[in-house]
Amino acid sequence: MDARRAVEQAARDSYGRLVAFLARRSRDVAAAEDALADAFRAALETWPQSGVPEKPEAWLLTAARRRLIDEARHAHVRAGAVPTLLAVADEARELAGTETRFPDERLELLFLCAHPAIDPAARTPLMLQTVLGLDAARIASAFLVKPSAMGQRLTRAKAKIRRAGIAFELPDAEELPPRLDAVLDAIYAAYGRGWDDVAGADPRRQGLAAEAIDLGRLLLRRMPAEPEVQGLLALMLHCEARRGARRTSTGRYVPLSEQDVARWSLPMIHEAEQLLMAASRGCGTGRFQLEAAIQSVHARRAVTGQTDWETIALLYEGLVRLAPAVGAWVGRAAAAAEARGAATGWALLEAIPPAAVESYQPYWALAAHLLDRMGRSEEAAGAYSRAVGLCEDPAMREFLAGRARVASGQTASVPGAEHEP
Amino acid sequence: MNYTLLFYLSPNEFSARSDPSKRQAFWGSFVPYAKALRDAGVVVGGAGLQPPDAATTVRLSNGQRQVQDGPYADTKEQLGGFFIIDVPDLDTALDWAARYPAGAGGVVEVRPNLPPME
Predict the structure, then answer these.
(1) Cβ-based contacts of A417 with chain B (< 8 Å)
(2) Do A11 and A97 fall into the same domain?
(3) Which of A189-198, A230-239, B34-43 has the lowest mean pLDDT?
(4) Do the domain assignments include residue A52?
(5) What is the pLDDT of residues B12-53, one digit of tens each?
(6) Are residues A382 and A312 in the same domain?
(7) Pairing relation of β-strands B78-86 and B2-9?
(8) Same domain assignment for residues A22 and A110
């Protein structure tokens, strides 16, 4: 393997574990990242000449240790930090010299990032940066935030961790549930950013979905009996299983109900179902289990050829009670419309507070569809236009515009209407 | 808080606005976008601009006026229009910018406005 690729491989395999190891001991995430960045830089300079070391992780740890010692010498202002940093350096040296693989403490790092003292808007980005090593510019693009603002948000969060001396430990049983919720939310938010990028064509979000699934697996390995952890991973796998079916070969949007089930990934669906089954044996139904169960009913179309909308509507009923949010309200209305008719769905849509949906595209797309089915074509046209105007994704925009043209009966005259799936 | 969304268009996109074979596709997605902005109640003002070849630039140096044909900035993408929107924060303004139905190579610059003068 050439040296450059070896460095990249080491970064992929070990970055999060190295940061976690160093940060846990120094209680200083930023210093750990800096030291490690230096170590990787040194590796890029040294390995092409001297060859790839036998234990790349140990080599990197030693290099990072050197940097931490320098840091300790120069950190006169933060005198208190010196002994800690020197202790870290010693431990790092010991570990580097032994045969034992150094401990995987990424989970502690995840929970640290989800600490209630940290700005909620910074939690997911912080995880992506510290555990997965994504840079601030990429995170900013994925979250549609000004890069300099994202950089500051991350810097502030790390400063807070250091100054407040937030404990780098798994929370105890009492504190665990809210912290776990924050970790799950953050992983799912990362997945959502990756999910929007269907084709994997957007370099800003490339691999974000896969990275979120990795975090889910990491969490599951350490908390194998936690139903919501199983639920979240099942949910992500069910969604991910459909990636290949969400666009035609020419890039056009395909709605879930029209997806070719042959293009779904059966191994992922199978794994998701196993997880969901295990979760149902645990105690307590949570938001992610319900959402995964909804996706599981959709997945059954691969076997039965049809969708059980009544069950989906029931599951959404539960979801709306457990975790009320605009997405769940709209999902419930869509399922009710399929199960019990457009008017029922419309009544549920109308009950959503208008302020919550002003710029929520799925609401307008569903409203247009239901108004059209009820023969209220003028209102449908207005809603379609609103939905089209709120789209970010060109494929979705083209799909909705096509629907709008069919609904208004102008299919013959408008170029592009033949693209209507 | 007011932000200005500045839409920069390539020569191709400028021609798509008026070319009979492309204009329907261009306006077909732009009009709903503008309508969604207005329906959300965030629009303070804005305008579409004629292409850069319709621009005239006036320079003033040492009391001398210099009038030139064409736009000020000699760049491939040129300002094609703008919206001033009133939204709570930059993130919301960026959301609206991301919904701009640009063809290939569309660029939206988002700038916070200075507070109004007394």
Answers:
(1) none
(2) yes
(3) A189-198
(4) yes
(5) 889 888 899 888 888 888 999 999 999 999 999 999 999 999
(6) no
(7) antiparallel
(8) no
**What one-character DSSP code corresponds to residue A253?**
B
A219: in domain: no
Residue A392 touches partner B, C-beta closer than 8 Å: yes
Sheet holding B107-112, edge to edge: B43-48, B78-86, B2-9, B107-112
* Alpha carbon distance A375, A340 (integer Å): 17
The residue with tokens 């010692």 is A69
- Over residues A14-18, the mean pLDDT reads 87
pTM of the model: 0.83
Share of chain A above pLDDT 70, in %: 87
The last residue of one of the domains, among A318, A352, A386, is: A352
Instruction: Note whether residue A168 is domain-resident.
Output: yes
Q: A127: closest CA among A225, A29, A21, A197?
A: A29
- Please check whether residues A65 and A163 belong to one and the same domain: no
Assign domain B2-112 to its CATH architecture. 2-Layer Sandwich (3.30)
In tens, the pLDDT along A52-96 reads 888 888 889 888 888 877 776 776 545 556 566 666 666 666 666
A135 vs A7: CA distance, rounded Å? 17
Residue-wise over A13-23: b if at least 16 C-beta within 10 A, else e? ebbbbbbbbbb
> Is A414 within 8 Å of B29 when comparing Cβ atoms?
no
Min distance B91 CA to chain A CA atoms (Å): 6
User: Is there a contact between B99 and A394 if contact means CB atoms under 8 Å apart?
Assistant: no
For chain B, domain boundaries: 2-112
For A187, how many CA atoms within 13 A lie in the half-sphere containing its CB? 31
Nearest of A258, A222, A261, A217 to residue A236 by alpha carbon: A217
- Mean pLDDT, chain A, rounded, equals 86
Distance from CA of B34 to the nearest CA of A (A): 7
Q: What is the ipTM of this complex?
A: 0.80
Q: Does A416 touch chain B (CB under 8 A)?
A: yes
**CA end-to-end distance (rounded Å), chain B:** 16
Searching chain B, which residue's CA lies closest to the CA of residue A399?
A: B29
Helix H or strand E segment including B90: helix B90-98
Out of B29, B36, B94, whose CB is closest to A145?
A: B94
In a domain, A213, yes or no: no
pLDDT at A320: 96
| A359 touching chain B per CB within 8 A | yes
In chain A, which residues have their Cβ closer than 8 Å to the Cβ of B34?
389
Provide the pLDDT for residue A196: 76
- Do both A57 and A1 map to the same domain? yes
Q: Is the pLDDT of residue A377 over 80?
A: yes
Number of folded domains that form chain A: 4
Q: Where in the sequence is the domain holding A44, given as residue range(s)?
A: 1-103
Which pLDDT value is given to residue A77?
A: 47
